[in-house]
Amino acid sequence: MQMNKMVKPGEAMSLATGLARPSREEAEAAVRTLIRWAGDDPGREGLAGTPDRVVRSYEEFFAGYDRDPRDMLQRTFEEVEGYDEVVALRDIRLESHCEHHMVPIIGKVHVGYLPDKRVVGISKLARVVDAFAHRLQIQEKLTAQIANTLQEVLQPRGVAVVIEAAHQCMTTRGVHKSDVTMVTSRMLGAFRDNGETRREFLSMIGRTSI
Ligand SMILES: [Zn+2]
């Protein structure tokens, strides 16, 4: 860590990195620099409010740096009448940003787990997805982070995560392959060891294979 990045009293800090955050004014100045770099005039009327709007957008896109996904899974329910089958939440909308180009990754996340005596509210699964998605990501890391966090905190008999997504760094720039989606999966515990359990999850999300 460089000394000039260390947090001084009164300065905002990133929970995820422990590094100091620049001020809003510095962030807006950086947007004006990029507008000039693109070839336009940040002083013209149509662009006057743009740095402010871009910075606000970043607050939404990257809100995950202020959230701890582990906290979201602390509340669980044990009165489940012995339910011990797969729980799956499919088609969770994914909105993330690729860490190489900072452009959108848009797709779907399917999450499953095999409970061991306790379950978690299903909205919490979607919140965990959102917390990791609202950071700079690559799809492989996102898939693993969601699965590993569910496994560590809930300690179920297994976790399955499948992500299908289009990367705008591939669809709107570079090779311009508009119809390509990327599929990643992480299978832990019973979903990794037991073909029957894995097939059951895949059929629940409408796939026959990965
Ligand atoms: Zn990219």
TrEMBL record:
It comes from the Bacteria. Pathway: Cofactor biosynthesis; 7,8-dihydroneopterin triphosphate biosynthesis; 7,8-dihydroneopterin triphosphate from GTP: step 1/1. Its EC number is 3.5.4.16. PROSITE patterns: GTP_CYCLOHYDROL_1_1, GTP_CYCLOHYDROL_1_2. InterPro entries: GTP_CycHdrlase_I (IPR001474), GTP_CycHdrlase_I_CS (IPR018234), GTP_CycHdrlase_I_dom (IPR020602). Pfam families: GTP_cyclohydroI. Residues 1-22 are annotated as: Disordered. GO terms for molecular function: GTP cyclohydrolase I activity. Zn(2+) binds at C98, H101, C169. The keyword GTP-binding applies. The keyword Cytoplasm does not apply. It catalyses: GTP + H2O = 7,8-dihydroneopterin 3'-triphosphate + formate + H(+). Homopolymer. NCBIfam families: folE, PRK09347.1-2, PRK09347.1-3. Belongs to the GTP cyclohydrolase I family. This is GTP cyclohydrolase 1. The gene is folE.
